[in-house]
C-alpha cells in the first residue's frame, strides 16, 4: 500500500520546483511575518512568488492597490468579483482563498458558498447583480463588451471610475486564475475552515 501524505503535512505551494530566495530580504520577511500574525499563515500565492522578489513585489503591489486601496467599490464587492471570476474559471486556489475572504467580510457563509457555485442563486442587490453580470461577461466573452454593458452599470449607480475598478479587478483575477491553474497552486489548508 502506498504511503499517503498526512492531511496536516505542508504541501508545496505549486507543482513547480522554484525554491524561495534564501534568505528572504528583510522587507519580505517582515511582510510574511505580518501575514502570519494577521492570518495565521503565509498565503501560498505569496510563497509561490517568493522565488523572484521583484515578481512578488509587483504582484503584492497590484493586489493591494486593487483589493485594499480606496475605491468606490466596497471591499466586499471586490471579493465578490474575485470569487465569481474564479468560479467561472474553475480556479481551485482562488475559489478557496477568496471564498474564505468573502465569508469573513460578509459574515455570511451561505453567500460565500453561493458565489463560488453560482452567483445567480445568491441574494444580491440589483447593483451587485449588475456588477457581477458585467464581471462574468468580461471573463467569458470580453470581445462582446459594448457600451450598453457600461450603461447598465451606470444605470444602477456605478461611476466611470467604478467601472474601471470593476474591470481591473476582473482582469487581475483572470490573470491570477490562469497562473494558479497553470502551476497547480495549492490553497492553504486553513482557508477551508475559515469563517464558517
Description:
By secondary structure, the chain is mostly helical. The chain has two domains: 43 residues, AhpD-like (Single alpha-helices involved in coiled-coils or other helix-helix interfaces), CATH 1.20.5; 119 residues, AhpD-like (Up-down Bundle). It has nine helices and no strands. The termini are far apart. The N terminus is likely disordered.
Number of β-strand runs? 0
What is the name of the CATH architecture of the largest domain? Up-down Bundle
Helix content: 55-70%
Largest beta-sheet characterization: none
So, the CATH homologous superfamily of the largest domain? AhpD-like
Number of domains: 2
In CATH's first tier, which class of the largest domain applies? Answer: Mainly Alpha
Strand content: under 5%
Draw up the topology in text:
Elements (H helix, E strand, L loop, with lengths): L25 H14 L4 H6 L3 H16 L6 H14 L3 H15 L2 H9 L8 H15 L6 H9 L4 H23 L14
In short:
The protein has 196 residues and is mostly helical.
Label this structure with key terms.
mainly alpha, single chain, AhpD-like, 2 domains, 9 helices, Single alpha-helices involved in coiled-coils or other helix-helix interfaces, 196 residues
